[in-house]
């Protein structure tokens, strides 16, 4: 009976393909690394993850707060980003530039960034400076010292940043404002950097209130990766444990849905060097059941070196350049693609090429082998985090609530569960129902020259294109 039972059971062992086995083997370091992470949640809600690296002489800290431009009210756009700047300009026990001076004296590397949904702060320091750094981090997060002088100084810095990265770049301001209108009347309907008027009018009192409302321990994830002593978790509790939350509860996640429909517009910029095409599709937020499939689909269409768009440009390409940085927020996502045409190619032709690629995927789907390659590419990017403690700390501090105990393997298992059928369905649902098209156009004489080149024989247009560009 025992032999019969074992033989019968053996007949039902699932078959593991070579591709699946390779992916399992590739993912093994994620599981091994994750087992070394210890997770603590302080009584005030602060989440702490510790990952020891015994062979390191450094330690990386990353603190992410679930506050971003989506939390700004009318008249206060840009406050999340402006306040990020303020946290480097003095706290109760480390006034002025003490923080930056101390970190520089320790040969520390530090920076921060603000997005729609979050603000993060990160630094890498010698392990011996960890206790001091935790004290400095707690002091500036809990007890920032805002003065009229530092506010004015950082207003000027942000306005200069706005001018350099947005206003002085061809197409950027007009394209950004047009795209933001597609999320009008939502928390994502204004730029992260804010409006020039709101930044200029920010006051010390308003920024202080912003801090008191949004910087709170139950909105914070702290990750520490590197060499640190066993007393580290106790140090964190000593510095952050007494931090109290505001009376009002954290905001509940929003529930927003966007429909894709054809939208076509154009902007003309007299500084534009050459025409370009910007395409965008509404997708879904990070916690949506289709988020993993959309991530793979974006790679397959636009981002991987072997993507459909990149492959179409290997021989006699229609485009000079393609560029895609998908935006993934908590409750919405945007897939985007910028394409710069060759002299012989019209913007309509570029758009048609993309439509054909999407139609092919939505109609014919993708093979198991191609999907495995996409998953392997995703894994490779994830595995690179393990080799870079600073990036790994930042990734751990960006953990979704559903992955609180599986910050590395949770996202991978959702990626690995995507099937060819789901990928095809996602292409049909989010990419085949229309998209936003924005033509980025230079001054008339460049447009005229470009139109003329489109009519020339290919060899001649290529030669003239080199001269023009």
From TrEMBL:
Superkingdom as given in the UniProt entry: Bacteria
Peptidase M16 N-terminal domain residues: 58-189
InterPro entries: Metalloenz_LuxS/M16, Pept_M16_N, Peptidase_M16, Peptidase_M16_C
Record's keyword terms, sorted: Hydrolase, Metalloprotease, Protease, Zinc
SUPFAM superfamilies given in the database record: LuxS/MPP-like metallohydrolase (SSF63411)
UniProt record, GO biological process: proteolysis
Domain Peptidase M16 C-terminal: 202-376
GO terms, molecular function: metal ion binding; metallopeptidase activity
Family under the similarity heading: Belongs to the peptidase M16 family.
Record's protein name: Insulinase family protein
Species: Shewanella canadensis
């Amino acid at each position: 009976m025992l032999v019969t039972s074992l033989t019968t059971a053996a007949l039902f062992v699932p078959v593991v393909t070579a591709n699946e086995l390779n992916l399992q083997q590739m993912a093994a370091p994620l599981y091994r690394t994750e087992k070394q992470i210890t997770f603590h949640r302080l009584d005030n809600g602060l989440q702490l993850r510790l990952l020891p690296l015994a062979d390191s002489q450094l330690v990386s800290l990353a603190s992410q707060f679930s506050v971003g431009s989506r939390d700004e009210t009318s008249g206060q756009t840009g406050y999340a980003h402006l306040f990020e700047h303020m946290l480097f300009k003095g706290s109760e026990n480390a006034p002025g530039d003490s923080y930056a001076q101390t970190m520089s004296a320790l040969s520390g590397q530090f920076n921060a960034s603000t997005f729609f949904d979050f603000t993060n702060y990160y630094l890498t320091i010698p392990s011996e400076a960890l206790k001091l750094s935790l004290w400095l981090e707690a002091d500036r997060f809990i007890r920032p010292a805002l003065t009229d002088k530092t506010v004015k100084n950082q207003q000027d810095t942000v306005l200069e940043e706005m001018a350099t990265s947005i206003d002085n770049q061809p197409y950027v301001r007009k394209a950004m404002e047009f795209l933001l209108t597609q999320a009008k009347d939502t928390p994502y309907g204004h730029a992260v950097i804010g409006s020039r008027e709101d930044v200029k009018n920010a006051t010390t009192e308003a920024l202080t209130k912003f801090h008191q409302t949004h910087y709170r321990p139950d909105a914070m994830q702290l990750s520490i990766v590197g060499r640190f002593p066993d007393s580290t978790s106790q140090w964190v509790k000593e510095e952050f444990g007494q931090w109290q939350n505001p009376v009002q509860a954290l905001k509940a996640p929003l529930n927003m849905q966007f429909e894709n429909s054809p939208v076509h517009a154009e902007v003309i910029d007299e500084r534009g060097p050459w025409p370009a095409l910007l395409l965008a599709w509404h997708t879904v937020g990070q916690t949506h059941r289709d988020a993993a499939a959309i991530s793979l689909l974006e790679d397959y269409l636009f981002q991987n070196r072997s993507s459909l768009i990149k492959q179409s440009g290997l021989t006699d390409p229609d485009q000079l350049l393609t560029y895609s940085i998908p935006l993934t927020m908590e409750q919405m996502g945007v897939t985007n693609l910028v394409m710069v045409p060759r002299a012989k190619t019209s913007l309509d032709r570029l758009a048609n090429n993309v439509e054909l690629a999407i139609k092919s995927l939505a109609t014919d789907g993708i093979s198991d082998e191609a999907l495995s390659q996409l998953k392997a590419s995703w894994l490779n990017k994830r595995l690179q985090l393990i080799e870079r403690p600073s990036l790994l700390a930042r990734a751990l501090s960006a953990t979704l609530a559903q992955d609180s105990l599986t910050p590395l393997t949770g996202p991978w298992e959702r990626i690995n569960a995507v099937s060819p059928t789901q990928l095809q369905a996602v292409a049909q649902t989010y990419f085949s129902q229309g998209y936003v098209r924005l033509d980025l156009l230079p001054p008339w004489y460049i447009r005229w020259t470009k139109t003329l080149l489109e009519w020339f024989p290919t060899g001649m247009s290529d030669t003239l294109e080199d001269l023009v560009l």
